[in-house]
Amino acid sequence: MQLTPQICQKSSMYLNQHVTKLHADSASFYVHYWGGKPQHHGNVMHSHPFFEICYVAEGEGHYTNKGVTYSLQRGTLYCSKPGGMHQLQSETGMLVLFVAFEIIEADPRGEVFQLLDKLTNYHHLFIPDAEQTPPVLLWKSLVLQAAERLIPFPQLIFGLSHALLLSLISFFSQHSGIITTSPEPETGFISSPVKNAKAYIVAHLSDKLTLKEVGQAIHLSERQLSRLLSAELGQSFPSLVRSERIKRAAYLLAFTDMTLLDVAQASGYETVHYFSKVFVEVLGITPGKFRKRVVGNKLEAATIHQYLWLTNGRN
Fold first, then answer.
1. Is the pLDDT of residue 74 over 50?
2. For residue 160, pLDDT beyond 80
3. Mean pLDDT, rounded, of the chain
4. For 57, left (φ over 0), alpha (ψ -120 to 50), or beta?
5. Where in the chain is the domain with CATH 2.60.120.10?
6. How many of the other CB atoms lie within 10 Å of CB of 262?
7. Cα 100 to the chain's mean position, in Å?
8. Domain formed by 192-312, architecture
């Protein structure tokens, strides 16, 4: 069933009236508002002290967050962090689903609290081609359920709503502002220290990263961290940082209008010259040509990721 304007309106009305506090053992949330807005042409630049997650169900437009402009199209999922200035614009209008929430009860040592804390450190919470992902399918199911004329089991709506927020938080934390998470080696297990190291690196790509700094952040010695990266990822620390920087740069080139200098600095390179040199070494193409190829062919994020993964696999 399609998400029509009528379905979105009925669903939003029910959810905003009845589903504002979601309690569970893992975490409890306060939902400031639910929305399903057809023909959304945009809003003024603004910010708010809570998370807001949006999904573009139909149409095209642009989303600006902290001075960076992203292209929006059907299937795009993005998140605005607390305090971040952002704006939505569309000439033709879009059908946008959105939910704004904050956590009100959770164990600070628990996974949900820690994942939300991680999200505040990620620079780019923007995921194209998310139409068939678990959280989006769950969201559509919730909208359809909440739009029914009779709802004999309200607890079903509450369960779906809580599951949706957890699913969205988990999904964004996994993607962490790059095209998608790289497939793990076929050898399997990746330990928590290595996952934490990668998360720290991704969250600080624009900084000068050292093995000592990352080790201290996750409470490992330089030697211990180096050995773990080699054993579990098959990469040295410099190689891992370089591949993550280039993935960040490729993402920004593909999905934003940032200048080459801004892309370079956001990816941890001080000059365009050095950034271009490393980019060519890793991907075999200049940043400018890469952007033209991606934009010109309108490649999907999955295709871009596959290209990046296969190419990075050589390094």
1. yes
2. yes
3. 85
4. alpha
5. 5-175
6. 15
7. 16
8. Orthogonal Bundle (1.10)
Q: Are 84 and 47 in contact (CB under 8 A)?
A: yes
In the chain, where does the domain assigned CATH 1.10.10.60 lie?
192-312
Distance CA 126, CA 225 (A): 30
Distance between CA atoms of residues 35 and 101, nearest Å: 12
Nearest to 166 by CA among 215, 225, 211, 101: 101
| Cα separation, 241 vs 268, whole angstroms | 10
Report the largest interatomic distance among the alpha carbons of the chain, rounded to a whole angstrom: 63
Backbone φ and ψ of 69, nearest 5°: -105, 130
pTM: 0.65
* Domain covering 5-175, topology: Jelly Rolls (2.60.120)
Interhelix angle for 154-175 vs 134-146, to 10°?
Answer: 160
Q: How many CB atoms lie within 10 A of CB 224?
A: 13
Cα Rg of the chain, angstroms: 20
- Helical H segments across 131-191, by residue range: 134-146, 154-175
Alpha-carbon separation of residue 189 from 8, 134, 171, 183, 196 (angstroms): 42, 23, 20, 12, 14
The DSSP secondary-structure symbol of 87 reads E
What is the 3-state secondary structure of 235-265? CCHHHHHHHHHHHHHHHHHHHECCCHHHHHH
Q: Environment class of residue 142 by beta-carbon count within 10 Å: exposed (0-12), middle (13-18) or buried (19+)?
A: buried
Looking up tokens 């280039």, which residue turns up? 246
Winning range, highest mean pLDDT, from 53-57, 73-77, 122-126, 248-252: 53-57
* Separation between Cα atoms, residue 47 and residue 21, nearest integer Å: 22
Tokens of 18: 């009845």
